[in-house]
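Please describe the entry underneath.
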Amino acid sequence: MMSFFRSAVRGVAQWFERFRGAQARDGALRSPQAAAGRRGFLTLAALAPLGAAVPALAQPSPGHAGHATAGAGHAGHAPSFAWRDPSRRISPPPPLTGKGTGSVRTPHVPSLGHELDGGVKVFRLVAQPVERMLLDGPPAPGSVIERWHKAMGAMEGMDLPKKARLWGFNGSVPGPSIEVVQGDRVRIHVVNELPEATSVHWHGLEIPNVQDGVGGLTQEPILPGRSYTYEFEVTQAGTFMYHSSFNEKKQVGMGLGGFFIAHPADGSRRVDRDFALMLQEWHFLPGNEHVDVTSTDPNWFTINGKAAPSTEMLQAVVGETVRLRFANLSNLHAHPIHLHGVTWRVTGTEGGPIPESAQWPGNTVNVPPGAARDVEFAFRFPGYWHMHCHKLHHVVNAHAPVPMGIMPMGGMTMLFEALDPPGQGGHGGHGAPASHSPTGPSGHGGHEASAPPPPTAPSGHGGN
């Protein structure tokens, strides 16, 4: 049986070479003989996967299922791919990763600093395999979320650590946030350490076509081990994104994207606190660390690459102006994000700021895939305020289609702590927690002080 299929595969290859040679000699592509030949080729080609599958099925799978085969191993997903090329060294993040000078904070994600080449801001991105803990594990004993889960009577075992093997930039998923000022000329040097070609699209930016970053259309794809440099002037202000524009369903679905934020040149639209929150969704088979980019039923949902209870608690003082920038790089779902206790104004989209006369109020904003939404507000009352996606199956980790008990808060869930102004003490009788990270002092970027740090602003401009 196997020898028959091997012979069929060899026959297909040999026949196809003869067929191509005949085309080149006499240009008979449209002749009846060529049409019959193509039908014969398609018939044989349909048998080729069977020939390849039979010997493969006869061999034991190396390693442990779902990892050694790099994404293959479950029915219906025969085209396997390597998460990384084992012969290629993964570089450490470029030195200026995490050293941005802007005013926007992207929890769990580094900012991207730049060098100056004359009047040009130079940024460096490395597209590479990334291991990311979507969930660090249970919240720390005594933390706000741990007390919340206990009070709910939440099920045990629903917050086990979750490691994922993804693709990102500079060791991060999402990639580091780029902040510039309207009018800046930027140069972005991209190195590809992935096992396949890629390119980078500057989502929402009006730039020359040759800089748009569509691999195969506006540029040659960036092959593994190669680099490419983009350069353009930023003429807009607003919340934008960058992401892969080559093999997008797979590459964006594996995490290749980040924020690109442009502040107004005139320093307008200042706020006290400015946060950027990237929404992403994933599907993982049980026990598998490789994301299934073919699925249309995601079961993990993250904000800036983290699922609750590992999401950082945000903070602001009552009366401060807060801006939240939401962007959605999910392959499928829109996410209606709701914050308790406030009425905000929707002040911007991926098209830039919305004039004040056209802004609209609410406390839930729908963020479709590929879109950005800016909202601004001020807390009136102190306390812990719940922010979450209002598609409620998006606030549970690793959900399954079976009846379950009380599930702890997971997925796209964050807490926002509104603090009393200095000198007023406490916040509404709740009492300050020992740590302002929901997982405790060792968490992942939570604030341990009893009041938030003062806002910072980049030189020459305020928030957007």
About this structure: The mean pLDDT is 81.
